[in-house]
Amino acid sequence: MAVTDISNFSNPSPEGDILFYKQGGLPSRPVEYLQSLIASTNNTICLHVTDEDIERLAHQYLHDQEMLFEKATQYLMFRSLVIEDDSETSCLVFEAQMMHMVRGNRYRFLQLDYIQPLVLVHDSEFQKLFGVSANAVIDGYERLEKALSNGRLEGLAALRELFEKAGSADEADFSIIPEKDLRAAEEAFLEACSVHHFNVGRITNWPKTFMDALSFAPGEASFFEEGEMRYWPIVTLPIVDRPFITLNGETYCFDYYSLTDIFYRAVQKAILRLDPGYSEQWQQRQKEASESMVESVFKEMLPGCISYADNYYGSKKHRNENDLLVIYRDALLVVEVKAGRFTDAPPVSDFDSHIKRYKELIQKSNSQCAHMKDYIRDSGAELLLYDQGMLPKAALNISNINRIFCLSVTMENINTYAARAEKLGFLKLREGVSCIAIDDLMTYREYFDNPLEFLHFLKQREMASLNERIALNDEFDHLGMYIAHNCYSLEIDNAPKGEILCITGYREDLDSYFERVDTPLPQLEKPRQNMPKRFREIIDVLFKSNNSQAVSISSYLLDFSSDARQQLSDDIDKVLKQQARTGRQCALSFSGKGDSIRMTYFVLQDELHDAQTDQEMFDYAASILLANGEKDRMMLSFRFDANYVLQSVNARSIDIDQIPPSRIDELKSRGEQMGDFRVVKYKREHGKIGRNQPCPCGSGRKYKKCHGQSNLISS
User: Fold this and answer.
1) Run of H or E including 589
2) Residue 88, pLDDT above cutoff 70
């Protein structure tokens, strides 16, 4: 208890009336290590130890353990840099070992969301083995998680309230305190200052048989590692099997992360240790619960989507399986769910087991996703799905699908390697499949208010994974870079050539925000992309509309740079006022070459007396396309009400094949005349045009290579 309290309260950060405690850099896991040593050592009980002895011993232990941890870490670094060769695997072993020692798989607000669906499906087994319902297990877990996270602070707060009621510290009169408040104060004192706070039975009311299955008594455990590193603090500790410890007949849980990171897998090990015959049922129920869990997350993130689970496709002889398909507007998500358990072995001594599990959790699902994507592309307008018996299940019309996303979702948090799986040489992966842990997917559910932005992020994440020069070590560095740079893979073009860039630190603001969600801590503003108010209104209206092409339209717009977003917003506001004054409709355009924006857009208002028809708007955009020699051009329209509130957004992509051959010359000539007019107008208003300046005609070319070559334009 002393070691736990000193460790937890060693780095206080006051925020108003609340003290917020944060761990330092790489945690040395002193509580886990001490509990594991006691659990694996006989004769550890010392009698006649005073409170002063306890505090002195706790500080001495923390000092010695930190030194031991530092020496072990230095050994790892030395081994990586000197003893091992310079191969990719050698570097990965060191990196994997460092991450093996980090705790905290998910943010606190996700703890119950993660554990509940996975535990509830085993209700009958809990009843059979322990005489407790799965709901009671969840309720106890929730109370224990809350006690370990802020129970001490709540107890101290309750004591402070008591002293405020009693008066000043010098003249406190406790006789005026009601009996019920005194009883509450006694409970608060035990919570704030005693081992009472860590007592699992008191907090959870779980039966002793269940607690015993998750607990070691002193001397009952043993370290898994053999050889010279057996008792080192960097190897896998006995606590990963059983997070609790039994002392003098009472069961305790001292470490928050030993509970939250380990609990589900510890329960799995306990049940299968007591009932080995349940193994097959456990796997099946775990698979069903995991897939249902992922499906539920997508249904919440993509409201109105249609999902299909447990799908089979192909022929009876060559049957293939897909876990989940999700259709949202004009996008289709191919999802594979991997519920398997990751290895407990430390990478430093058994990296082969890590590679094996990475291949099972990442490589296999990647192949399944890519295979399904190929099948979809070969299916044309109709996608046929079958049930497990290969009987027809659904015939999906996918003719309007413009975008396919492939995701592999793991129930284990293998964030570090999943975030850059495509860059790992030992994995043979097909391109275009993103690997995400369920913890990260649930965090995205909390983060994204608009599903169109989530799908645009997935698009950018996929593009980043295809960029050979980007290697991110954390999933939320992807999100952080997206927030900071939008099309963030393009940022690498400005960096020195010939190197892979390992980028870190972009998740820090997200961490600060998420670690406060659903806690008493002061809430922070959510980190978001810079987006002009009018531009955000466009994306929000697309989401709320019934536009079947909303994903592709929003994706096109969200690709805009900050300057282009601002220009579009400013132009719309300017045109709204101008059209309201003149009653005549205007047309605006972006033009350019290559990946530049090529777009013509119209602002529609009901009160216009000179509004263009759909055909006239098409002709206008087509004339610019032909005059500029473009492959394609996007045409958008924004409809507003009398109060300048956006009502709808529509878009279509046009190309030369859509223009009747009989009208090509006419429309091209018209477009050239409009370009000539813009050049003349610019010269009248601004004077001479620089040779390297973009031509005012809107072609996207420099003036010297466009109208600057002609003598037909008079100033």
Assistant:
1) strand 587-590
2) no
